[in-house]
Write a structure and sequence with these properties.
Structural class: alpha+beta
Radius of gyration: 57 Å
Number of strands: 12
Largest sheet: 5 strands, antiparallel
Number of helices: 14
Number of domains: 4
Oligomer: single chain
Helix content: 55-70%
Shape: rod-shaped
Distance between the termini: 57 Å
CATH topology of the largest domain: Heat Shock Protein 90
Length: 506
């Protein structure tokens, strides 16, 4: 559940739940208090709302006694002259916060209040005629407040009589006090419980994820990326956790790449140092031989100088290859793409290679299975570098007195495939995935005095890929190795993307 939805639900709960719970508590407590009032005061309580109207309750509390008085007046008025009867009536009213006052011809006959004087009572009671006129209960407001009900009658001798029931409204009956106190307590408890529950809910939704994020952030700050920040939630924090985890994975990958690059850089420096140190050591040795007079004959001197020259050339080629690889690796190698006729281009290349290979006693054969007008988009110079590097690599490791080299151009639909096959020593299948890595040398080349720099094929791979092609190798130990690479054909269209790429490069 999203955090925004939780906040909306929390608002609804805060607004509605306390009211619902308070109404429920009101209903339960009110029902119980009604029963208490009915049992204690012998009265009927119509509904729970009556509990919130103490005045009406006080009036209703005296209903049973008032009904008894009316019945007595109607059936046996002489009882109103009985002190014992009147005191009995008054005693019944004391538990109901009431007392009676009886007058005869507007003269006080009896008053049941222990804390009020006769004069005070007579000051507030109306006359017989006033009671006849108003016919309703009335309110007395003084030091104490009363609801007063009256019943007029005629004594047996014809005198005017009035019996008043004074009910105090200064206080609240214990049940009402208890009910109001319980409602206040219930309100406080409901608000507290609602607040605590919502706080715990929001805390679990916000603070716990924040705590996890804090721990994860500290781990990243300490360089610890080997952990997983998982979440099963699909809210805002779930999305944040997923983004954080993606960031951690990228940081870890970046750190691993940096370590790998550092290791490769160290390996590169080590390989360069080794490849430069070997010819330098040879050059140094022969120069010292010349300086020490070991080359004491013209033949020896010529041999020494020739060796120094060859080793210097080896160093020059290595540096040139390193420079080329650096340009290609950093995308600083300029490419001049153009439309190239496959037949004409590869025929020229084969003619140039023929004379070089003939000197190495290597037989070269060439087969072109494409149409004469087949065109490709390529950089002629860089494509020639690809062919020369592959051929040069094959020549180094043929290892036979009579070597053969086959170059085939095959039509592969939208592509041409160039295959350069030799009859050399071949390679194990496990070595094939790595031969295009920089400074990688096969086991055979490591043990060969003619081992190359290990950069040539990596340059070839990058150039082919820059042409939008792909290169791979197949080999069988003891039989030979075949290099395969494909380049897309040029197809004449109104807006040829290959032409547009060439124009952009120009």
């Amino acid at each position: 559940m999203k955090l925004g939805t939780k906040l909306k639900i929390s608002f609804v709960i805060i607004a509605v739940l306390p009211i619902l719970l308070l109404v429920s508590v009101f209903a339960v407590l009110g029902t119980w208090q009604m029963k208490e009032i009915q049992n204690n005061y012998d009265m009927e309580v119509s509904n729970m709302l009556s509990l919130t109207n103490p005045v009406r309750l006080f009036v209703n509390m005296s209903d049973s006694v008032f009904a008894e008085i009316k019945e007595t007046v109607a059936n046996d008025v002489d009882m109103m002259e009985s002190k014992e009867y009147i005191e009995d009536i008054n005693s019944k009213l004391k538990s109901k916060y009431s007392f009676i006052v009886v007058t005869k011809n507007d003269e006080l006959v009896y008053q049941g209040c222990d804390y009020a004087s006769d004069e005070d009572v007579m000051d507030v009671v109306p006359t017989y005629e006033d009671c006849i006129a108003q016919k309703n209960s009335f309110y007395v407001n003084g030091e104490k407040q009363y609801i007063v009900r009256d019943e007029t009658f005629k004594y047996s001798n014809g005198d005017n009589g009035v019996i008043f029931i004074f009910t105090s409204v200064d206080g609240v009956i214990p049940q009402i006090k208890r009910f109001l106190l319980e409602m206040v307590i219930a309100l406080v408890v409901i608000v507290l419980l609602t607040g605590i529950c919502l706080t715990l809910w929001i805390y679990s939704s916000v603070m716990k994820p924040m705590h996890k994020l804090t721990i994860a952030t500290k781990k990243i700050a300490d360089g610890d990326l080997d952990f997983t920040l998982e979440t099963e939630k699909e809210d805002e924090f779930g999305n944040l956790f997923n983004d954080f985890e993606d960031m951690r994975i990228r940081l870890k990958q970046s750190a691993e790449d940096r370590i790998r690059d550092d290791n490769e850089t160290k390996e590169l420096i080590s390989n360069i140092s080794h490849d430069l140190k070997t010819p330098l050591t040879t050059i140094k040795g022969y120069v010292e031989g010349i300086m020490d007079g070991v080359a004491d004959t013209p033949e020896k001197m010529d041999k020494y100088i020739h060796t120094i020259y060859n080793k210097a050339n080896d160093m020059d080629r290595l540096i040139a290859e390193l420079t080329t690889y650096s340009k290609i690796d950093t995308n600083r190698m300029p490419y001049n793409f153009a439309k190239v006729n496959v037949d004409e281009y590869f025929t020229d290349c084969v003619e140039e290679l023929h004379y070089e290979l003939e000197a190495s006693d290597i037989k070269l054969t060439y087969f072109n299975y494409t149409d004469k007008d087949t065109m490709i988009i390529a950089d002629p110079e860089q494509l020639k570098r690809v062919i020369n590097n592959i051929v040069s690599n094959s020549v180094k490791y043929i290892g036979k007195k009579q070597g053969t080299l086959n170059i085939r151009i095959n039509d592969e639909g939208d592509f041409i495939m160039v295959e350069i096959e030799d009859n050399g020593k071949g390679m194990d299948a496990k070595e094939l995935p790595y031969i295009f890595d920089r400074f990688y040398r096969t086991d055979a080349s490591r043990n060969s005095n003619q081992g190359g720099s290990g950069i040539g094929l990596s340059i070839v791979k990058k150039i082919v890929e820059a042409h939008g092609g792909k290169i791979w190798a197949t080999s069988r130990p003891g039989t030979g190795t075949t290099m395969h690479f494909v380049i897309r054909k040029y197809i004449e269209t109104l807006n040829n993307p290959e032409e547009e790429r060439n124009e952009d490069n120009e």
